[in-house]
Amino acid sequence: MPVIWDIHDGIICGTALVYRDFLGEEVTVITKDMKIKNAGIVNTIW
Prior knowledge:
The protein has 46 residues and is of the alpha+beta class. The protein has one domain. It is built from two helices and two strands. It has helices at 7-22, 34-39, and strands at residues 28-30, 43-45. The chain has a two-stranded parallel sheet. The longest helix has 16 residues, at 7-22.
């Protein structure tokens, strides 16, 4: 994850990645945060 993110963005995306990569769940993060959306690490809506 990019080092310029604040801790909260990292926790949100990290949690989504655990659900996706380790638990095999389909994950979409509901957010207006452009840092998360532009990173393209997880699917987002809003």
